[in-house]
Amino acid sequence: MGDINRDGLKHNEVLCAIEDVISRESINSIQLTEKNCVVTVKEKNQRDRLITVGIKIRDRSVNFVEIDKQLTNVTIKDLPYELSDSFVTTQMSQFGQVVQGSIRRGVIKDTSIENGTRYLQLKNCVPILPNKISFGKHEIRLFADNNRTSCKFCNGTDHPSFKCRDKPQQLRKCYNCHQPGHISKDCLEEVVCNYCLLAGHIKRDCEKYQDDKTRREMGEYADEIIEGRRGQSQSFDESITPCDTGIEDTYVIPKSKTLILGASNGKRLGNFSPDVINASVSGASFENIDELLNHALSVMDDTDASVEKVVICLGTNDITRNRSDPDEVNVNATSAVNCVKSRFPSAKIGLCTIIPRKGKGQSILKLNETTQSVNNFLAKLCKKDSSVSLIDTFNIFCQNGNAVRPLYDINDPSGVHISDKGVDKYIVELSSFFGNTHVVEAIVHTPALRKRNLSSNTTPSSTEKQGKHHKSI
Questions:
Q1: Structural domains in the chain, sorted by start
Q2: In what helix (H) or strand (E) does residue 188 lie, and over which residues does it extend?
Q3: Mean pLDDT within 246-255
Q4: What is the DSSP letter of 69?
Q5: What is the pLDDT of residue 119?
Q6: C-alpha closest to that of 242 among 451, 436, 452, 453
Q7: Which region is the signal sequence (predicted)?
Q8: Cβ neighbours of residue 316 under 8 Å, at least 6 residues apart?
Q9: Can you tell me the mean pLDDT for 300-310?
């Protein structure tokens, strides 16, 4: 930029003077403002030559100065589309002189649609521009070069805020277990409801959430409605029969009981048979088998009933805690089996293999390797003890070395919990150990086929057509 007398000065006159110093091809533009001549060149060395040598116009020497250090490029964010450029110029003049014609509007790439950003240049800009200011009722953000914008963390001007070394490192929070330090795709813990903060279910399946939602919608009668729904659900469950054939099916529920001791996947099996007590607790493991047994006894409605069979479907949480130490899981599994045998000496024990995790990555691969190692140990344990039978659930959920995806809950990022289809497969495998035909019938979710009643208006079947044809002969 050079300070010259503009009276009658033409672009060609300036161009001829500049060509005496640098070539025409190296010049990008020549701008004549009210007081200055602004020359833009392609290369830095050409700019330095103009600053060093200068030019002669009308027998007068003209010196150039570096304009980059006098102009500040400002980016304005969050500015409403309706605000005019003249309004923006007026507001920004408090920070310096807005270069005429420098303001422009940002657009989305390859379109003419604006994105809410304005760009302008300031001369004689104040040393530090604020990060946020108000244009009337509108709060906007400012970003500038030449070290005019201070970092919001350390107030330094030699770097933007996102590159600040003093920036506090926010701990990432997992949406699966709600613990900091990792994200959901890397989570290996059990899913935790973000409403009641209990493990084993998501908000959609949360009983507390459903109750609170009913209270908000139903008002003062909500408690009566909730109580009525629960009572109706219980009576409906008690009245379900496997198949209504019109013939009264009378049988007596035996006094002997079968216990299921599991974690969250065990809870998903539900109460699928009247002589099976599902005492599963979310988060349970081989380590806390004593608490699980105490819970089972507390939920048994008939304390006089003898426990004939006990199914242990644990181990997933043990694998999570000891992913690189299968020996620790083996010790805990052996202790759990011995504890069940001492509590129910005459009971037959069914020991389920641990199902694999769905997913990819080194962490999942390591967990599944540990799972297979523990399952091999469980198989050997069952061979040595005649009172313990192996229930091979692993091979149901794993085909060709990969987890069968439809058998897992699609909404569970941890890859641990099974779907309704997985529940059906699991119960079918347990039924062979139970030896109870009612179990198999109870898990069939598909409704029975209805008998087709043909009216006179319906299309005749092939048999009817054939019969009519013979009659016509």
A1: 2-68 (no CATH), 70-163 (3.30.70.330), 170-235 (4.10.60), 254-442 (3.40.50.1110)
A2: none
A3: 42
A4: G
A5: 92
A6: 436
A7: none
A8: 263, 265, 354, 355, 416
A9: 70
What 3-state class would DSSP assign to 5?
coil
DSSP result, 189-231: SPPB-TTT--BT--GGG-HHHHHHHHHHHHGGGHHHHHHHHHH
CA distance 5 to 100: 19
Other Cβ atoms less than 10 A from the Cβ of 98: the count is: 21
CA atoms of 260 and 310, how far apart (whole Å): 6
pLDDT of residue 228: 64
Q: What sign for the dihedral angle of Cα 418, 419, 422, 427?
A: positive
3-class secondary-structure state, position 349: strand
pLDDT of residue 217: 67
Beta bridge partners of 30: 39
Distances in whole angstroms, Cα of residue 66 to Cα of each of 1, 49, 333, 343: 7, 11, 78, 90
Q: Which of 104, 103, 91 is nearest to 138 (CA)?
A: 91
- Cα distance between residue 71 and residue 122, in whole Å: 6
Report the greatest alpha carbon distance in the chain: 125
- How does the average pLDDT of the chain come out, rounded? 77
Cβ atoms < 10 Å from Cβ of 87: 13
Position 7 confidence tier, pLDDT thresholds 50, 70, 90: low
CA distances from 34 to 2, 12, 64, 179, 288 (A): 12, 17, 16, 63, 85
3-class secondary-structure state, position 122? strand
What angle (nearest 5°) sits at the alpha carbon of residue 358, between those of residues 354 and 364?
85
φ, ψ of residue 17 in degrees (nearest 5):
-70, -40
Spatial distance between the Cα atoms of 343 and 358, rounded to a whole number of angstroms: 35
339-366 pLDDT per residue, tens:
999 888 888 999 999 999 988 888 888 8
Tokens of 208: 């507390």
Task: Give the Cα separation of 225 and 387 in Å (integer).
Answer: 48
Q: What integer pLDDT is reported at residue 448 of this predicted model?
A: 38
Prediction pTM value = 0.43
Which residue do the tokens 């919608």 mark?
Answer: 217
Contacts 24+ apart (CB under 8 A), 370-378: 370/319, 370/322, 370/323, 370/324, 370/325, 370/326, 370/329, 371/315, 371/319, 373/326, 374/315, 374/318, 374/319, 374/326, 374/329, 374/330, 374/333, 377/326, 377/330, 377/333, 378/333, 378/351, 378/353, 378/354
pLDDT digits (tens, 9 = 90+) for 208-249: 888 777 777 666 656 666 666 555 555 444 444 444 444 344
